[in-house]
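Q: Two folds, back to back.
A: First:
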Amino acid sequence: MFFTLQIYTNLSKEENFPPKDFAECVFLPNFAHRIKDIAYMNSIKTSLLACSLLLSLVCCVSSPEMHQLSPVEQSIILYADQTVDSVCFYTFDSWTVTPQDEWITINGDSHKDIVNDYTKRYYCKVFLTVQPNTTGQTRCGTVLVKSYEYSYSAPFVQLGLLKVSHPAYTVDSYLDDSYVIPKLAHYELIDSAHCLRDSICFTVQNNWTLNFDGEQPEWLDLDSKSGASGKCRVNLTLTPNSDTENGREAKLKLTSGTVSNEIVVRQLPAKKEED
């Protein structure tokens, strides 16, 4: 749009006043102020935009890098025939996982390269293969996890016991002074002289067998001596013990894969009848 400014030198002549484009002349100063206002507003907008861009650049440059290595709480106690477990953690960065004991190995990737992005935190789960514990006692191992400049050692405890829920194990010695984790333990089922039935309950990872260690005694019988992995129950049938002086016992061997545990079944003597 174009604007024309006309200068009138002879305003005393009636025919020339008011001019035809008088409105154009009268309102021109106001419009000129508007032009100045618009120009000023545009300059403010330009300045604000520049400040906004500068602030964005500053934010991008000064955004802190996020680095974190957070272990996920998990059960670290394994039974003797358990061979699969995992270590889990959160991180923003590349990571490595390194077992510190020969009986623990990585099942899959032992490391992964990650380009750090502080808006993304990754959940990592690394599967481990654990050798069966045939030592008869508890053993401890660690897995070293590293990410960025952080690291931690994930502890693993593998019992020398198979998972038998009945009877409960009896502790012979503890792993440390906390008296929580057994180092050595055994299974013993104790029945009264007049008990006729009992059971042995367990959960195993492999096909199993339950056999007598030696000849089978006449007073004890089992309804099953082998089976598949999983949760199992073997029912026992006992003959009452009429001996008032001596108890009796039988030794069983529960085997899952390459791991075996002894289970002692003990029957108490009968009480003497009162005279």
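A: Second:
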Amino acid sequence: MRNHFFRAAANNAVGVPISFVASSTFSSSNTTIPSATTAGNLILLFDQRNGSTADQGTPTGFTRIFFGSGADTTQAWSYRIAQSGDAGSTITLASSANNRGHVLVFSTGSTMTYGGSFDVTSEFTSGDPTSQTINTTSGTKPLIALVGVRTGGDPVSNTFTSSPNVITLIDSSLQYTCGYKIYNTADTLQDITVDSGDGGARNSIVSMYIEVS
């Protein structure tokens, strides 16, 4: 499924380089915001759940970017602009049933602005997902390409590919993970094809890019 979203007003022309700060991984109903987080950072929450297709909701203080479900699994993405005191604090997930995922933190050295999600594509299947293309060349820099993957039984490293090979995965040894590619103002945008094979039941792949400043 591919969705296109209206571009929200954001000061993308500033061109302050985005950098990746830190990540954390969770497999329970609570997770922690990385200690390196500072006020103004962009916090992304990738929350994957299996054994249900019900919406797991959005944690307090976060704003939903995407939710999708099928084949007895879900994926949810949300964001928060970090506030003073967020570092090391606990995120209580809205559902405690088989939540697994990552928290990602990005910085420009000042307060960041979320400018919207675009070219969102998703598939939830008990078979082999179809490859997806993140069309970042349609976007406005700076932006971050994102992908979330769940395989039914194999580590993501066994099946996931990106072309060109530019996606940084948080932990490909797991059956679930997410990855990113930052495009700053000085970078050349690339359309990225991502794919994940059939790892058994409960396969999913979600891709998009978000514009930030």
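Q: And?
A: The chain has one domain: 2-212.
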